[in-house]
Amino acid sequence: MSGVRVLVGTQKCAFVLTSDGKRQRWELSSPHFVGWEIYHLTGSIADPNRLYASQYNSWFGQLIQRSNDGGETWEPVGNRFVLEGGIGNYEGYDGTPQAWEFKRIWHLEPSLTDPDTIYAGAEDAALFRSTDGGQNWEEFRRLRAHHSARRWQPGRTAMCLHTILLDPTNARRFFIAVMAAGVFRTDDAGETWCPINRGLKSQYIADPNAEVGHCVHSIKMHHTRPRVLFMQKHWDVMRSDNAGDSWQEVSGNLPSDFGFVIDVHAHEPETIYVAPIKSESEHFPPEAKLRVYRSRTGGYEWEPLTKGLPQNDCYVNILRGAMGVDSLDPCGIYFGTTGGEVYASADGGDTWMLTAQRLPRILSVEVQTLP
Predict the structure, then answer these.
(1) Largest Cα–Cα distance in the chain?
(2) Model's pTM, two decimal places?
(3) pLDDT digits (tens, 9 = 90+) for 31-84
(4) Rg (CA), the chain
(5) Which of 30, 115, 124, 300 is disulfide-compatible with 44, CB 3.0–4.6 A?
């Protein structure tokens, strides 16, 4: 019987949850990397036993870890991330010029075909790649050299490259998102980059056609339709049907269109999930009711999914990387909260069960379907 492995990164350590294909009983591992912030913990599609972790500590800095046995053992790998010079500055939060500086890795994206190839999104916003299992890293310099980069600004937390999407039908095309600059696409494996933010509207940007400056929280695609993208922006849920060339709002009847996370059903390309948050200053669910919303129409109509979720006095948030799906049938949906709970649904969101609780603040959730 197939199984599921849920990889959980938290503010103080990492955990691995496992279950069989029924997904009714879950086993929680002992904590890994205790005392470190685990910004992202993820696995390779090409080899499910190959895992990568990005950990950070204010005393010891950034460290990348690799496992070859599904998280049973780990080894540190290459940790030399060099930002090439000669690019100039970017605009700081206060409007002053800021020099580029590597701080940490926010996101890891393994290749779809090679477990030794992995991409890394950094703060400050930079993109790196390793082709030897994380031992050596090379920057995609031309992203930061884009003419718009001097106008990129950090959001309230950081100017981070937090999302990387690889096109499964075109190895030379991938998408990245930077907070708070927007979404960019390359069609030639990183030689050139194009901002793809047309149609995005942002409250604090006067120019309705601004090339950059939009605070994109997350983007996702379905592997069978890589030209269709779904986005949770600072405000607004958006979709693009032309690989990001233009966007349209699909917030519909959501109680709030502010949020951080978005994901797509494994077998239904028009079924998407979001977790609305009250506002940019009040990071908890509207009415203090924890509700995931599902649209079966690509965002045009939404329904609340509440069975098994707390419907009173719930003041948690779901961060941008803290939702994932498995590829079983029916599709499983998983998310983690800033209150340290992990919820799972084995029926596409119709019902939910609490699989772990009292963990540290959850930063990321990734899901592996095991043979």
Answers:
(1) 57
(2) 0.96
(3) 999 999 999 999 999 999 999 999 999 999 999 999 999 999 999 999 999 998
(4) 19
(5) 115
Q: Residue 237: CB partners within 8 Å, gap ≥ 6?
A: 230, 231, 249, 250, 251, 252, 254, 257, 259, 262, 274, 299
Q: How does DSSP assign 28-64, residue by residue?
A: EPPPBSTTSEEEEEEE-SS-TT-EEEEEEETTTEEEE
**The 272-274 sheet, strands edge to edge:** 262-264, 272-274, 292-295, 303-305
Tokens representing 72 are 């049973």
| 185-213 confidence digits (pLDDT tens) | 999 999 999 999 999 988 777 677 788 98
Q: Which residues contact 103 (CB under 8 A, 6 or more apart)?
A: 62, 122, 123, 124, 158
pLDDT at 123: 95
Q: Computed from CA positions of residues 84, 87, 88, 92, in that sequence, does the dihedral angle turn out positive or negative?
A: negative
φ, ψ (nearest 5 deg) of residue 144: -70, -20
